Amino acid sequence: MARITASVYSSHVPAIGAAIDLGKTSEPYWQPLFAGYEKSRRWMEENRPDVVFLIYNDHASAFSLEIVPTFAIGTAERFPIADEGWGPRPVPEVIGHPELASHIAQSVIQQDFDLTVVNHMAVDHGLTVPLSLLFGQPPAWPVKVIPFAVNVVLYPVPSGRRCFALGQAIRRAIESFDEPLTVQIWGTGGMSHQLQGPRAGLINREWDMQFMDRLIAEPDKLAEVPHIEYVREAGSEGIELVMWLIARGAMSDVAGGPPPRVVHRFYHVPASNTAVGHLILENVQ
Q1: Separation CA 267–CA 270 (nearest Å)
Q2: Which of the ends of the chain has fewer CB neighbours closer than 10 A, N or C?
Q3: Which domains, ranges and CATH numbers included, belong to the chain?
Q4: Nearest to 8 by CA among 228, 229, 278
Q5: What residues act catalytically?
Q6: What is the pLDDT of residues 269-285, one digit of tens each?
């Protein structure tokens, strides 16, 4: 049977992708940020999964404001890189796992979560930047990827409680797949940031650190935090952090297993007016 080995959490700031693509990672502004991912890249080399289930939000690349699904799962064999207005990032095409993705869709929908099944979509920086941070610049991504897009752009957005419960449904779906695959669940986006209005540039280090503490130790209680707190404390774009709760809900301890092992934790500000957070939690067998 398939099994989830770890969850990975990371910001997906578009400027990070640009820094990688333009060879700026060793410049003084960017070097501290990329240094914070070095341990994770080494860990990934030794703990590479067969499939990454990657939770992210689309930035009007696959979905316009005409149609915005709350939860959308990519079931295609391949996902092209989106042109976000300045050309597609020079990164490999994303290869999917349609059999597992279709199984997850079937299972999760039968658990009463309404997913939009997407057989063709382009993927943008929300998905490719985390891949670049953990895998570098390979000629082909070394894992298959199931894109899972969450609407955190156009209100109303899903609650933290809903996202946490969805993660539990995804774990049940993956563990019922009858192939011996190893799977990692990645939650991306955040941390605190606001890109417009009078509070543009807002970063709340104290709130971000508390969020990571609670994500590790008490995710069920963290899932009860209302939307207004995210907006007030973490800025208008801080709501992206509910996607981390999907990944956290898929971990074994939520279903009665032992607490996960903290492999690495990292926090850095700023990165293009955004607080960058990163965390790896490993299931204990």
Answers
A1: 10
A2: C
A3: 3-255 (3.40.830.10)
A4: 278
A5: 125, 193
A6: 989 989 999 999 999 98
